[in-house]
Amino acid sequence: MPLQSMTGFGKHTFQWRGKRYVAEIKTLNSRQLDLTLRIPAEFRPLEPNIRKLTADYLLRGKVDITIHSDSQEAQLPINEEVLMLYLEYFKKLSHQFGFQTDLLQAAIRMPDVFAQTPVEHSEEDIFSFEKDFTIALEYVIKHRQAEGSAHTKEFEKEISAIRFLLAQIEPFEKERIDRIRERLKNSLIALGEETLVDQNRFEQELIYYLEKLDITEEKVRLTNHLDYFIETMSNEEYAGRKLNFIAQEIGREINTLGSKANHAGIQKIVVQMKDELEKIKEQILNIL
Q1: Integer CA distances (angstroms), 228 to 236, 248, 277, in order
Q2: What is the pLDDT of residues 223-257, one digit of tens each?
Q3: N or C: more exposed end of the chain, with fewer CB within 10 A?
Q4: What's the rounded Cα separation, in Å, for the pair 261 and 270?
Q5: 72-96 CB burial, b ≥16 within 10 A, e <16
Q6: Collapsing DSSP states into helix, strand and coil, what is residue 249?
């Protein structure tokens, strides 16, 4: 199943109760569903329907929904009685204080000038609206899936880069062991010829020391985490949080490799791995 990004956009024009409307939905990443609505008064009774549909389809993200009329006529009838009262009041103030202004523009901005008579929406109205609003939501999902596909390609590229870097560590491992053995022997020689060395004991101590620096288990676990990341990404549609946890485990193994490295070449590879992992973490923040 394809991953979904939390970044998306959907737009749908529809007819409802004799007027043409446009629904626009924009989404960005967020830990929870953060919904902002800008809708005409005639849709206010349908706000619970809008919120439920949005939650069911988009799950989470910062969601900005705007519905506006595409018709030329005014959206709300003017309360002429209230408007005239404001006009008379502003005219009186204009004569009293001698200021010049567009009285109509000033009055029309005042509260209660536009009156909306409560309207009961029929089941047919609600069904019609939900059907059209769902189309806008489906456009958002298509956009999110397209964005998710782009992220998937980037994830595959970055996971492959970490695998490649992990393979580059192997040649340094034998070199590291030989270097440690040589350094310990040179240290013993520096103590003087009178120092007697039990060769068997020396080998045992060397093995014990090298076991502390062994990175075999970390390499195996890191490989398993990389495999699990790809498996989860390929099979789960809403994998953002899970991928984040796996990325944390990948980071833990990379950090342990770095702490055990004791070798400049391996340390350099670890830094490169961390750079690739940071790219993954940044993108995961946008995955649903």
Answers
A1: 12, 12, 15
A2: 999 999 999 999 988 999 999 999 999 999 999 99
A3: N
A4: 9
A5: eeeeeeeeeebbeebbeebeeeeee
A6: helix
